[in-house]
Amino acid sequence: MTKKWNTRTQLVHEGSRRSQYGEMAEAIFLTQGFAYPDAESAEARFIKAGDDEFIYARYGNPTTRTFEERIAALEGTEDAFATASGMAAVSGALTSLLRAGDHVVSARALFGSCLYILEDVLTRYGVKVTFVDGADLDQWRAAVTPGTKAVFFESMSNPTLELVDIRGVTEIAHAVGALVIVDNVFATPIFSRAVEQGADVVVYSATKHIDGQGRALGGVVCGTRDYIRKVLEPYMKHTGGSISPFTAWIMLNGMATLDLRCRAMADSALKIAQALEGHPKVTKVIFPGLPSHPQHALAMAQMGSGGTLVTFEVAGGKEAAFRFMNALEIAKISNNLGDAKSIATHPTTTTHQRLPQEQKDALGITPGLIRFSVGLEDAEDLIADLHQALEHA
Ligand SMILES: *Cc1c(COP(=O)(O)O)cnc(C)c1O
């Protein structure tokens, strides 16, 4: 699609529609349905709804539509469908497409709920799933077959910030005609160039950077008009995973500042990673924006940024990590990310608690590991807070 406006203009204006009152702010159409002027119009709309004609909020709504158009324009896809959560987006993107007997190849390092969809749900309905080490293109090459319907991966993994080469995997997948579905949450919609790099479908948890203020759950699937309206929409609108108009409005408000926020967070993340690297109480710093990251060059080519999260290992294991977290004065202990408030997470006892030890070991999720989601606070204050808390570790 040719781009009408640059990013910051899109984020403020794209998709806006105004009622007869000409309101400045995006209106919340808090309505489940729409009255038709006459019975003939109702019949006509059920045969084929026009562009700005709506039937029922589970199918679509003016506020929701504005959010979908804005994020599609930003991502560079023809269309998008907004969902009740990031997981409704991931599960919808996969389940709407796949049938019994289909084959999917997926990266193994996944957000816990994504792993549940692939490992437990899809297989229950006869979909065959092969897991690979996402960073190893040879494993993708060996796993895809002419029968592979889709590949799925998180472009940057949680919590160890390992990248999957979108262009590389896309070439392998497209050679066998498989659809490339990318969960791009950690990359953020601002640093994403996934579509340009070949991805067919890009999925976001809008709960993270898009809201950016920790208020609401939401998600979105971006893709071609054919995929969104013919494959995904029928499934979503009949199974009930649509976003609420109120949430879509929250996400629209988040989008106006999305570019500014992601760039400010990424700038601070780099400063924090630099400040932690070499600290005597920190045994490892993982940040794709640092030259020490093994995929630094790929991160720069793929995202042009190291992102907004820094993962590091505190010397002394779980006890030291807990002492460190409990001593933080600015950052909160929680498990969201992309929030204006900085958040420290201890993956091994929370988000990844249920993984068997050998999988934690394989993924590098050690007892001293901290995932730090960099917020919008002053970077110098955050660094001072991290340094004083490390004294307690
Ligand atoms: C948070 C997250 C999800 C799920 O999103 P929800 O909005 O919590 O449902 C999926 N994938 C990744 C990578 C996430 O970080």
Automatic annotation (TrEMBL):
Pathway: Amino-acid biosynthesis; L-methionine biosynthesis via de novo pathway; L-homocysteine from O-succinyl-L-homoserine: step 1/1. InterPro entries: Cys/Met-Metab_PyrdxlP-dep_enz (IPR000277), O-succ-hSer_sulfhydrylase (IPR006234), PyrdxlP-dep_Trfase (IPR015424), PyrdxlP-dep_Trfase_major (IPR015421), PyrdxlP-dep_Trfase_small (IPR015422). One of its GO terms (biological process) is transsulfuration. Keywords: Amino-acid biosynthesis, Methionine biosynthesis, Pyridoxal phosphate, Transferase. Gene3D superfamilies: Aspartate Aminotransferase, domain 1, Type I PLP-dependent aspartate aminotransferase-like (Major domain). It comes from the Bacteria. It catalyses: O-succinyl-L-homoserine + hydrogen sulfide = L-homocysteine + succinate. Pfam families: Cys_Met_Meta_PP (PF01053). Its cofactor is pyridoxal 5'-phosphate. CDD domains: CGS_like. The modification N6-(pyridoxal phosphate)lysine is found at K208. GO terms for molecular function: carbon-sulfur lyase activity; pyridoxal phosphate binding; transferase activity, transferring alkyl or aryl (other than methyl) groups. GO terms for cellular component: cytoplasm. The keyword Amino-acid biosynthesis applies. PANTHER family: CYSTATHIONINE GAMMA-LYASE, TRANS-SULFURATION ENZYME FAMILY MEMBER. Homotetramer. Belongs to the trans-sulfuration enzymes family. MetZ subfamily. Catalyzes the formation of L-homocysteine from O-succinyl-L-homoserine (OSHS) and hydrogen sulfide. This is O-succinylhomoserine sulfhydrylase. The gene is metZ.
